[in-house]
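Design request, tokens follow.
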């Protein structure tokens, strides 16, 4: 389908899901809140476009590992903004982040030296991580003041206006029947993911960002079953690190 058409459908499906909740939410965001929402939506769209393009030329496990550093970006931004994080929690977050990366790497890879396509995937995945990190921080910044429905709306509005509508005008939204279930699942899961992060970020942007980045480990497991990308020993160690880190984090937060 291509990255553009895939993203257009994912955002269109998401908009259909989100609109009823936005209407029910009632009160409108303030000017400052709207600016944060616009930044969050734009960052999410740019990040998804980069990631969807990256997985067309690189391996899912490698792309997901790089993109998963979005949590570190958002946590760094929240720390710079003054959110207090104890030394113990910071250490556990570092353990989880390391586990995520290890669980997603397939070898001791010199990723950028493989070939031109792999290098392109790395650059795009890095851009996705930066964009996602900015988006996560922006959502977290206003998550305690707005209904969750408003937090999910901007990316879907931007995606439909900037990507779906232009493609539709050029008859570029064709979707193969075999792709429809996956696109529908992606559209629904993307909404659930953003909503889940928004609720978690009301307690701590940094912790929600890093825990949310576990999508990389899940992607590595999915790639094993669907694409035959084998889990290496370091990936198993990474998954174990994530499990231990999540348990410790829950203990410290309690």
């Amino acid at each position: 389908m291509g990255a553009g058409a895939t993203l257009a459908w994912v955002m269109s499906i998401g908009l259909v899901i989100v609109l009823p909740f936005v209407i029910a939410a009632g009160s409108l965001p303030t000017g400052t809140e709207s600016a944060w929402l616009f930044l969050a939506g734009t960052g999410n769209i740019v990040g998804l476009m980069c990631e969807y393009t990256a997985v067309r030329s690189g391996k899912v496990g490698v792309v997901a590992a790089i993109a998963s550093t979005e949590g570190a970006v958002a946590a760094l931004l929240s720390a710079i903004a003054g959110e207090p994080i104890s030394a113990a929690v910071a250490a556990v977050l570092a353990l989880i982040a390391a586990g995520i990366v290890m669980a997603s790497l397939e070898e001791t890879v010199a990723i950028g030296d493989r070939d031109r396509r792999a290098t392109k995937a790395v650059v795009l995945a890095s851009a996705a991580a930066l964009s996602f990190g900015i988006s996560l921080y922006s959502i977290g910044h206003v998550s305690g003041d707005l209904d969750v429905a408003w937090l999910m709306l901007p990316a879907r509005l931007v995606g439909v206006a900037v990507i779906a509508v232009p493609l539709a005008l050029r008859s570029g939204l064709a979707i193969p029947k075999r792709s429809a279930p996956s696109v529908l699942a992606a559209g629904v899961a993307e909404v659930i993911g953003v909503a889940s992060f928004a609720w978690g970020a009301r307690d701590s942007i940094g912790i929600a960002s890093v825990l949310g980045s576990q999508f990389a480990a899940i992607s590595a497991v999915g790639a094993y079953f669907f694409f035959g990308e084998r889990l290496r020993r370091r990936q198993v160690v990474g998954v174990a690190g994530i499990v231990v880190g999540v348990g410790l984090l829950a203990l410290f937060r309690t």
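Comment from the thread starter after seeing the answer: thanks! Residues 108-113 have pLDDT under 50 and may be disordered.
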